[in-house]
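Predict the 3D structure for this chain.
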Amino acid sequence: MSWQAYVDTSLVASGNIDKAAIFNSEGSSVWASSSGFTIKPEEIKAVVTSFADTSDVKKVQSAGFHIAGEKFFTLKSDERSLYGKKGKEGVVIVKTGMAILVAHYPETVQPGAAANTVEQLGDYLIGVGY
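Done. Predicted structure below.
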């Protein structure tokens, strides 16, 4: 399956995600993206930095983060996942060995359903070596 197919079929077609992108694990290359879902280089760099941050209280937890020009408040931040919320919409970001999945969910979707969709794809990619 192509990277674009993962975005279109595994994420957006689930109905739990309305737009998504997949980057390499360094955040330096976009492998696939929904049309119009543009994540700035400094935004993905901050995400990559948050995964490496081992502080008790990560900077991203106190300051939040930006995706596609929108600020999100951090709900969860660990070495694999970063969840953010803005009003009733949010983002779920999952890091695998070789990729970073960035998915946005609309206010009509429950955060847990969106998280399950993205985490399951992350588990699958890890299982096949990505």
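The radius of gyration is 13 Å.
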